[in-house]
Amino acid sequence: MRKRLGLLLVVLIGGWFLLPSLQGTLPRIVAMSQTMAAQATHEWETQLPLMGRQDKDTATPVESIVKPRTLKKTYYYHFAGSVPNDLESTFEQAIAVYNETGIVNLVAGDATERQNGLTIFAYRMTMPKKQAAYLELGKGGPEIETVTGFQGYTANHAQAGLNLTYAQSRQVSVAIHEVGHALGLDHSESRHSVMYPIDQGKTHLSAADIKTLRNLYA
């Protein structure tokens, strides 16, 4: 009996010390908003087997700050001064993928405060050595502004960017992922989705991606 109590005490104490570590690690892995490099797939699957080892037939989630059918389908996009010419071409191809759905309409130009706008940018950031297995290839997301009153409006002043530090970022699949975030799509657990957190080289929206996009804008 004493041995069992001793063993139980060891387990409880060990769990007490491990819990803060797990709480600090898992949210960072699950909630990452950036596209990660495909080379991290093995490590990702080791830590989160349900996300990497089986596809789930689930809908592509929606960014929490975006409410369905509150935004107009037209976006005006422009490139920040930091974007090189070859990256502009990469984003133009990504934008074409979304325009081909007929659900949204992304056109070149500068948006007013009342209109949906997309700022495309480039940046450089080197991952710390302790996170070298996970390369941040890009980042993007919506920024919703709602003004109430007689002349009220809701507009998305979104951003999408690629990390020029890593050559893997200069891919259409990564640009599609970040534009998806800007439009309101969140990370998906399905490898078929362009919104899977680890870059899979996907250059076409999945049926689930299109369904969620239609739910947001149709």
Note the run of SSEs as H and E: HEHHEHEEEEEHH
General shape? globular
What number is the mean pLDDT?
A: 81
As a whole number of angstroms, the C-alpha radius of gyration is 20 Å
The domain count comes to: 2
CATH-defined topology of the largest domain: Collagenase (Catalytic Domain)
CATH H-level superfamily of the largest domain = Collagenase (Catalytic Domain)
The CATH class assignment of the largest domain is: Alpha Beta
Q: What's the main sheet like? A: 7 strands, mixed
Low-pLDDT sequence parts: 1-33, 38-55
Number of helices: 6
Structural class of the secondary elements? alpha/beta
Beta-strand content bin = 15-25%
Report the span from N to C terminus: 65 Å
Number of strands: 7
Helix content: 25-40%
Q: Tell me what the CATH architecture of the largest domain is.
A: 3-Layer(aba) Sandwich
